[in-house]
Amino acid sequence: MRLLYCLFWLFLMLFPPAHGMAKDNQSLPEIQEIARKFVLRQAEALPGNIEVVPGPLDRRLRLPKCSHPLKAFFPSGSRPTGNTTVGVRCTGGTPWTVYLSVKVAVYGKVVVATRPLGSGSPLSLVDIHLERRNLERLRQGYLSDPAQVVGKRLKRPLGLGAVITPEVLKIPKLVRRGQQVILIAKVPGLQVRMKGQALEDAGAGEQIRVRNISSQRVVEGTVTANGIVQVQM
């Protein structure tokens, strides 16, 4: 009987119960959550709503429970958007490092076409609306304010649901080459106005070269309104 008792305890020492082993292993969901929160912090400055989905870890993975707080990091070459990789490291008495894939998507509302649109005609509010899209996939850019689109014309036709990008919009020319314009230079507490002659066509927000009629000096400025060019002093 005593022999059986000793054999029983020897068996427990060599083969501990499964639930006891689980307590000594690091929780895999905890590793995933550490990675998710780390990526969220790194991407919080990005515009739009950020969604982070950690990839699965092999359920057969057995890592000793870390005696220190886990630390997440980006391996060399990783980035905080798209499909990326995150490392989670234990710096405790039994150190280990594991890597997992993470999908990061940034969603936001962008201007899209409500119907097929031809080129040339001015766009109105009935032609566009805001729609939620994955911003990471919009490599050609996007617009998030309908006011940036209304009144503009398209350089080429667009289909239903197409994202309207800055590149497809024609910017109305507010200044034409040879036109007389007003040059405005601002300094703290002072605004100077001069007459100039435009040397090229330009729309709102575009850079343009202008000849100062008084000094004949050629300066660069930004078109701010019809016939108005702001220059830096």
UniProtKB/TrEMBL annotation:
InterPro entries: Flagellar_FlgA, FlgA_N, SAF, SAF_FlgA
Subcellular location: Periplasm
One Pfam short name: ChapFlgA
Keyword annotations: Bacterial flagellum biogenesis, Cell projection, Cilium, Flagellum, Periplasm, Signal
CDD domains: SAF_CpaB_FlgA_like
A GO term from the CC aspect: periplasmic space
Annotated signal sequence range: 1-20
The keyword rRNA-binding appears for this protein: no
NCBIfam families, per database record: flgA_cterm
A GO BP entry: bacterial-type flagellum assembly
Role of this protein: Involved in the assembly process of the P-ring formation. It may associate with FlgF on the rod constituting a structure essential for the P-ring assembly or may act as a modulator protein for the P-ring assembly.
Annotated ranges, domain SAF: 108-170
Key word Signal present: yes
Family that this chain belongs to: Belongs to the FlgA family.
Organism: Nitrosococcus wardiae
Protein name: Flagella basal body P-ring formation protein FlgA
